[in-house]
Amino acid sequence: MHEMSIALSIAENVKEVLLEHGDVTPISIRIRIGCLAGIVPDVLRFSFGFAATDILGCSPGLEIEEVLVSGRCLDCGEHFTFDTFPVVCPSCGKARIDHTGGRDLELVSLEVEDNNEGDRCQTKDPESQ
Amino acid sequence: MKVIAVRQKILKANSQAARENRARFSRERVCVVNILGSPGAGKTALLERIAGSNDLSMAVLEGDPETAMDAERMEKAGAAVIQVVTRGTCHLDANMVQLALPRLDYRNRDFLFVENVGNLLCPASFDLGETMRWVVLSTAEGADKPFKYPAAFKTAKAVVINKIDLLPYLDFSMDQVKDGLAQICPKARVFKVSCKTGEGIDPLMGWLRGFSRNPAKTNSKS
Ligand SMILES: Nc1nc2c(ncn2[C@@H]2O[C@H](COP(=O)(O)OP(=O)(O)OP(=O)(O)O)[C@@H](O)[C@H]2O)c(=O)[nH]1
Ligand SMILES: [Mg+2]
Ligand SMILES: [Zn+2]
C-alpha cells in the first residue's frame, strides 16, 4: 500500500516533467531509493505499472537505484556503508554506529522517445486525441 | 531517445504542504506531535492519559483508515478533536492535515497531537509539518521493532514504550530494545509507561510541559 502511494507520486512527478518537454514518450524512469525508506523494489515496480497507466496513459520501465546507508563507527572511526540494521562495525565489530542517509526517494531522470519518430504509447491528455 | 535529468524529491508535493503547515504552526505557536505506532500500540490510550491529566491545553487530529471510534474516545477524554478517515490509505499526508485544520479548534492551545494511522512503515515517509514525532511501541509487539522499522524510529524525538504492566507475561527484552534505540535513534527520549495503570506517565508529562507555549508556569522542563 505504501508502494502504491509512492508509485502514484512518481507518476505525478513524471507527468509534470513531461509537460515541459513537448511531444515525448517516456520509455524508462530512473529513481533512487534509500535502503531505510521502507520500500520493496519489486512491489514498487508492480504498483508503478498501474499508477503509470492511470496517470500517464502508458507504462514506462522503472529503474531503481538503491542507496546504501553511510555509517561511522563511534569506537574506531571506521566509515562504511550498509543496507540494513542491526549493524556492527566491519573493522572492530562494535555496534555503536552513527549513520546518515538511506531515506532518499528521488526521481533522477527520464529516458524519453521523441514522438516525431514513432510512439510506443500515449502520454498526452487522452481527450486531445 | 534522449535523457532528461530531473533530480527531484518524489514526495515534493507532500514536502511543500508540510512546509506550509510547519510555517503556520510556528506562527500560531502550537507544538504539533505526530504519533506513530503499530495498530493497537496504545496511541489513543496515551492521548487519553495526556488529556486526562488536565493541565495542558490540547487538540487532537485522529487519522484512521475507517471509523470515528478514536475521535469519540478523545471527545470523552475532553479534547478538541477531529477525525480524518483515510478510506484505507495507510498514512496521513501533509495535505490531509492541511484540509482538516480549519475544522479543528486547535489555535491558542499548547499542543496539537496527530495520531497517525496505525502502521510503522508508511507514516514514516510523510512529513506532516509537525514539531516532533513520537513512536509508541507496546511491549507485546516485541523488542526487535526498532531494527525492523528503522525509518519510523530514526526520526523519533521520543519513544514511548507502552504496556509495561504486561512485562511479567512477556519475554520482551528491555536491553534489546535499548540496543536497538541506541543504534537507530540515540538522541530520542525513551519513556516506559503503562497507559492502563498510569505508571511512568508523570515523567513524560513533565518533559512534555517544556514544549508548551508558556513552560514557565510549569515545574519541569528540559
Ligand atoms: N495492558 C495494557 N493494555 C493497554 C495499554 N495501553 C493500551 N492498552 C490496550 O490496548 C488496546 C489498543 O489500544 P489503543 O489505544 O486503541 O491503541 P492504538 O494505538 O490507538 O490503536 P489504533 O488506533 O487502532 O492503531 C486497547 O484495548 C487498550 O485498552 C497498557 O498500557 N496496558
Ligand atoms: Mg488509536
Ligand atoms: Zn569500529
Write the layout of secondary structure elements.
The complex is a heterodimer of chains A (129) and B (222).
Chain A: H1 2-19, E1 24-34, H2 41-55, E2 61-67, E3 69-73, E4 79-82, E5 97-100, E6 105-114
Parallel strand pairs in A: 1-2
Antiparallel strand pairs in A: 1-6, 3-4, 3-5
Chain B: E1 2-9, H1 12-28, E2 31-37, H2 43-52, E3 58-64, H3 69-76, E4 80-85, H4 94-100, E5 111-115, E6 132-138, H5 145-148, H6 150-154, E7 158-162, H7 174-184, E8 189-192, H8 201-209
Parallel strand pairs in B: 2-5, 2-6, 3-4, 3-5, 6-7, 7-8
Bound molecules: guanosine-5'-triphosphate, magnesium ion and zinc ion.
- Biggest sheet statistics of chain B: 7 strands, parallel
Write down the Rg of chain A.
19 Å
Q: Structural class per helix/strand content of chain A?
A: alpha+beta
Tell me the fraction of residues in β-strands of chain B, as a range: 15-25%
Instruction: Please name the CATH topology of chain B.
Output: Rossmann fold
Overall, the morphology of chain B is globular
Walkthrough of the structure:
The complex is a heterodimer of chains A (129) and B (222). Chain A has 129 residues and is an alpha+beta fold. Chain A has a domain at 3-68 and 101-116: 2-Layer Sandwich (hypothetical protein PF0899 fold). Chain A has 2 helices and 6 strands; from the N terminus they run H-E-H-E-E-E-E-E. In chain A, helix 1 (2-19) packs across helix 2 (41-55). Chain A is elongated. The model of chain A has no long low-confidence stretch (mean pLDDT 89). Chain B has a single domain, classed as P-loop containing nucleotide triphosphate hydrolases (Rossmann fold, 3-Layer(aba) Sandwich). Chain B contains 8 helices and 8 strands. Classes of the chains: A alpha+beta (129), B alpha/beta (222). Strand 6 of chain A pairs antiparallel with strand 1 of chain B. Zinc ion binds next to loops of chain A.
